[in-house]
């Protein structure tokens, strides 16, 4: 894991970055590895990949963060990327793998109400995706909206959102 994180930091090659992110994502399926990756500063390295201009690299970074977000301590660090993830979801091609990866991460990050306030500005986008997206996109958006709707503080934002 340490070598993979070092490799991510050291290379600009998108193919190598993709493969390293896939491997880290698969490794993050095991809770012990989630802590190790966090302790090796892997979350900030992976989070930094969200600003990459290569869509596949962003997608793989989102997938890795999604798997890493199953851990509350990791969520505390990942939450700094929520607004950037929302922007990625909004700017990604409709129904793309990149958009779905972002929505999956937002679903995990919205399970508790701790970070709902960071998603308020994206509610109109979520509602647009609900009406325009394919079934896969709609299901992911609904998961986010259901999580947001469980928070009474979000009621006004959800009901006043312009689509």
TrEMBL record:
Armadillo repeat-containing domain mapped to chain residues: 1-163
Pfam families named in the record: Arm_2 (PF04826)
InterPro entries registered for this protein in UniProt: ARM-like, ARM-rpt_dom, ARM-type_fold, Armcx_regulator
Signal peptide: none
Transmembrane is among the record's keywords: yes
Broad class of where this protein is predominantly found: mitochondrion
Entry superkingdom: Eukaryota
Topological category with respect to the lipid bilayer: Single-pass membrane protein
Record's protein name: ARM10 protein
Organism in which the protein naturally occurs: Balaeniceps rex
């Amino acid at each position: 894991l340490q070598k993979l994180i070092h490799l991510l930091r050291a290379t600009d090659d998108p193919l190598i970055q993709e493969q390293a992110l896939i491997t880290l994502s698969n490794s993050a399926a095991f809770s012990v590895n989630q802590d190790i990756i966090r302790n090796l500063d892997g979350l900030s390295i992976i989070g930094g990949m969200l600003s990459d201009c290569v869509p596949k690299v962003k997608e793989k970074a989102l997938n890795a963060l999604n798997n890493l977000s199953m851990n509350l301590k990791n969520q505390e660090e990942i939450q700094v990327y929520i607004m950037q993830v929302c922007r990625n979801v909004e700017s990604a091609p409709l129904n793309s793998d990149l958009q779905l990866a972002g929505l999956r991460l937002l679903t995990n990050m919205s399970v508790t109400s701790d970070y709902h306030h960071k998603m308020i500005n994206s509610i109109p986008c979520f509602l647009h995706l609900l009406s325009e997206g394919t079934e896969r996109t709609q299901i992911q958006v609904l998961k986010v909206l259901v999580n947001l709707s469980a928070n009474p503080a979000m009621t006004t934002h959800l009901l006043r959102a312009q689509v």
